[in-house]
Amino acid sequence: MPAGAGRVCRRSRRAPARRGHLRMTAAVSVVVPAYNAEATLEGALVALLAQDYPAERYEVIVVDNGSTDRTPAIAARFAPRVQTLREARRGASAARNAGILAARHPYVAFTDADCVPDRRWLPELVAAATGPAAADFVGGRIVAHAPRSAVETFAACLMDQERAIRVYRPPSVVTANLIVRRALFDTIGLFDESLRRGQDVDLAYRAHFRHGATFAYAERAVVAHVNPRTLPALFRKGIQHGHAVAGVLGRHAGDLGELPWQRCVARRQYAAIARAVGAALGGPAIEATRMEALCRAVFEAGKQLGVLVGTARAGLPRRRDRRSVPT
Predict the structure, then answer these.
(1) Full-model pTM
(2) Are 111 and 46 in contact (CB under 8 A)?
């Protein structure tokens, strides 16, 4: 796994800065991986450069991951405020790792090329990361960007950072809205570049199980994510999530008490899909409820297919773990 001058000030007559102000202005490197993101990158960068945060206290690093569209040209228009790197190794993990290694500041914040951060995103994220309840990983709220369909609205629940951090055990994070101390990567290692999906969950699990890392949620640090708009796109998103589940389970089966093949045959997964289909097709439910149930059925079906395909491709051992498997 790759591992990733002070200045003397004269006294002045001005009152000393408030402690909260010092926390708010911690220096931050914002890393944005981008691959063929010409449709959304400009909006992301405009929002990042409009943060209610001192410009000299943060840098924005776009890591182009071998795009074949206008992504590099769009990023270049924002120079010198935006630094553009090229990363030939494919995958979001390799791109984020390149950004971490290039980061000049003690905190590294992550968002994506298809996200539009709120103007208060960075100050709220930094306040949570440096305040009294500071944690190793601090994730913010992720909402749908200008949703125009029921599918886009439903897809927001797929990136429920609050549940990932406060409810799920073990906790996990979503890198669309995250801040981490740069030095922490020297301890826990970088993102696993062999994983094409679920790298953020894998990183959180490694930090939790091996290093006892802490996690916190920043409700007021908000980014809007461009979500899938159609049911076929939602189905494809489900397949991607399923691939991630297979990969993460394969690496953390001993800690989680579940192997990928056990998720493939778990009755509860198919029962959940059946319930969602039933809610979408039958009963007196209102149209909005039926549409939500249909979205859930489509996504969960795609996700389970992704688990099956991901497990088969990995050729993971089909043996039962010695630990008990939760139902």
Answers:
(1) 0.83
(2) no
Q: Which CATH number fits the domain that encloses residue 142? A: 3.90.550.10
Q: What's the total number of domains in the chain?
A: 2
Residues of the chain with pLDDT under 70: 1-24, 280, 282-288, 316-327
Among 199, 225, 251, give the residue marking a domain's end. 225
Query: Which tens digits make up the pLDDT trace of 65-91?
Result: 999 999 999 999 999 999 999 999 999
Tell me the residue range of the domain where 283 lies.
231-314
Cα(260)–Cα(316) distance, rounded to whole angstroms?
8
Query: Dmax of the chain from CA atoms?
Result: 74
For the chain, list the strands marked E by DSSP.
28-34, 58-64, 82-86, 107-110, 115-117, 137-144, 178-181, 215-225
254 and 200 in a common domain: no
Whether the CA torsion 104, 109, 114, 119 is positive or negative: it is negative
